[in-house]
Amino acid sequence: MPPASRIRRRGAPRPLASRTKRRYLAEVVASEKSQVIAHIRQHYKRALKRLPPSLIPRVAKAGVCIGFLDPVCNIIANTDREGQQRRGTMPRRARRLLTSYFRYLTAWEALYYLRRSRADLLVAVHLVEEDRATRGFALDHPITKVALACAARSAMHPRPDAFMPASVSLASRRRQMCSLLAPLRPISDVTAERISRMSEEGLQPPAAEPHQELMRLAAARTRAFTNVPPPVELQSCFEQSTKKVLMDKIHGFYLEAISRIPKTLLRSRLHRALLKAGHCYGPFEPVGNILVNTIWYDAAFPTSLELEVDMIRNESLAIAESCSLHGLVAFLRALGPEPDDELSTPGNLWNLLLHNACILDKCISSAPGLLRESSITEFVAYRAAAVAAYHPNPAALAHFAARALTPDDVQTISRALSRNNPPDKPARQVKELTPRASQIVAAIRKEFQAHQRLIRERVEAALLEHARMQGDDYEIHAICGVNTKIPDSRG
């Protein structure tokens, strides 16, 4: 228990240092917001100079700068002849789209990207994708539609449901919009009416994907902006977001690896090796490393105690994924950078892994400070990774990973994947549990199996319903990502 002097009464004021830090952080965020507002005001000034006099009073009703064109064109295109008074601040509207579209993106980070992009929403999307090493933007993607709808509602747009399809429709006609909204050319009432009709025509399927062309233009506009790093005060916020994005990527590696393991092997034996030692660091790409490390551990350290499972618990998979990240970071740290080196900080290493798809060879080649001088150094690095990842046998894993795989090794791995027979190696002896420990394990197993039966029944029912509605038959390979809050049949 902490000393009495360190216990703060409920409702008591926070310590001065904490209050000062929060106040200073609020000032930093306010500064970011004020700069975004200044950029938005400039966009409105340019738009007002080009709009016909009859439409200028309508800008305040629906002329938001949200959309898939540049900000000035968005304001002009969104200006409507009808609607109620708009409420809410413009930075909040654009910020809502970014935080709705990008997972783990905080409001503070969204403000930074809007400031860096000069309130150009598509440029901000491009900058986030660059920093997160993703290329997933598409006009017709469900996430894009949801994010745009959230932004429209946050902006108190008079017709939020019509705003999203209208924005997509105009973006898919970018070339026509460019000719209508040529730079510095005043907009006539006839042109405004034509844009209004185009917004109601729906998505136009062009020869090339419209989002690819839009993102190329956004990238071109990015080159005109200065690459300003985020404020130091918000650095930890950015690092935590990077870590979460990286963990999502690692989660995807595990799901792909699970899908590649034969169902009978996964359910009978390999689920144990996958969760205990199937880490994604090694000499190959992450999915290959997970498969190789899983099969090697099962062959090198088999067990006679098998448990047939259909479901892998979220918590167990999350632990394995977290161990993999610890191992990846430890491997890179062991290869070169000194403790006080800038590259050795967690945030920089997470970025390095994210931008190189967690492939260690790519990380090493893209970072001059990481050098492998000999196979001994590589062995030490793999052992450090295994220790950090809580591998059951770090030394054995390091010997296996640091050596080049021979044809016999490849044949052994292929044989292990192609049959459902346990390896010839004798099973490792397991210490006998005490009676009390045996009771606890038996109770946990019984509870897990009951929950597994419930989940399997519900998944099978959902698949049958899908087959009835869509005509597609699916077979359960493995169940992952289960919501543990699902009540049983009695609840």
UniProtKB/TrEMBL annotation:
It comes from the Eukaryota. Residues 39-80, 97-129, 248-362 form the PIR2-like helical domain. Pfam families: PIR2-like_helical. InterPro entries: PIR2-like_helical. This is PIR2-like helical domain-containing protein.
